[in-house]
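Sample 3 of the quickstart, ligand nicotinamide-adenine-dinucleotide:
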Amino acid sequence: MGLLDGRIALVTGGESGIGAASAKALAAEGAAVAITFYADAQAAGAVRDAIQAGGGKAMIFHADVGDEALVEAAFAAVTAELGPPDILINSAGLNMSGVPVADMSLAQWDRLIRTDLTGAFLTSRAFVRGLRDTRRPGRIVNISSIHSTAVRYGGADYCAAKAGLDSLTRTMAVECGPMKIGVNAIAPGMILTPMNLKAETDPKFLDAADDHIPWGRAGKAEEVAALAVYLCSDKADYITGAIVTIDGGLTLEQALGA
Ligand SMILES: NC(=O)c1ccc[n+]([C@@H]2O[C@H](COP(=O)([O-])OP(=O)(O)OC[C@H]3O[C@@H](n4cnc5c(N)ncnc54)[C@H](O)[C@@H]3O)[C@@H](O)[C@H]2O)c1
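Result:
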C-alpha cells in the first residue's frame, strides 16, 4: 500500500531537479504521474522510463507553462490518458537573472514572471476546473523559494515571482478550502540541482556556501520531493495555505553576521 495509491499527479518541470525527484517519489507511493517538460524530451523520457521500470504508470507531455493553450492541451491529454489529475506539483521555473532592476529589460522581467508565477496560475486554474467538474478533492504544491522573502541583489524578477507564488498559494487555499483542495508551497533553500550548477560543479563554491547553512550542507532534490509527497498525502489533510521552509536553517542565518 502506497500513500498515494489511485491518485493522478501532474508535475511541471518534471524532467529535471526537484520536479524529476518529485515525479519519482509520487510514483513510488502509488500515484500515476504525468510529467510536463519544456527543454529536454530525452530527460523527461528517462524519468518516465524509470517510473515504468519500477512498475509505475507515467506519461510525458511537452508544455511551456507560460503558454495558456499548451497548458490547456497538457491537461486535456493527461485527463484523456490517466484521468483528471488530483495532485499538481508546480516545479517549473527559471532562476534569477542576476541583473539589478535599473539594468533589467522588460523582456527579462516578463519571461521570469510568466514562467515562475503565471505558469502556476495557468496550471492551477486548469487543475481546479478539472476537480470542480468532477467534485473530487485534490492537492497543489507550489515550489516557491526562500527568496520569496530573503531577497538577493539582482533577483527582483525571481524574488517578486516567488513572493507572488506564495500569495497565489494562500489566496487559492482560501478559495479552494470548501472544495477540499489543499494548496501549499514549499520554500527550499540551496538544493543541488541543475539550477544550482555552480554549486554542483565547483566544490570550492559549494564549501563556501555550506558554511552559511547551519545544517552544514546543501539540500537534495529527494528531500524536497519527500516533503511534497507528505503534503499530497492524507496525513497532511488539514494543512492548507502553508509555506513550508526546507533549508537546513539557512534563512535563520540572516543578520547573524551583523
Ligand atoms: N535548486 C534550488 O536551490 C531551488 C531553491 C529554491 C527553489 N527552487 C525552485 O524549484 C523549482 C525547480 O527547480 P530545480 O532546482 O529543480 O531546477 P531545474 O533547472 O533542474 O528545473 C527547472 C525545470 O523547469 C523547467 N522550465 C523552465 N522554463 C519552463 C517553461 N517556460 N515551461 C515549462 N517548464 C519550464 C525546466 O525545463 C526544468 O525542468 C523551481 O521553481 C525553482 O525556482 C529551486
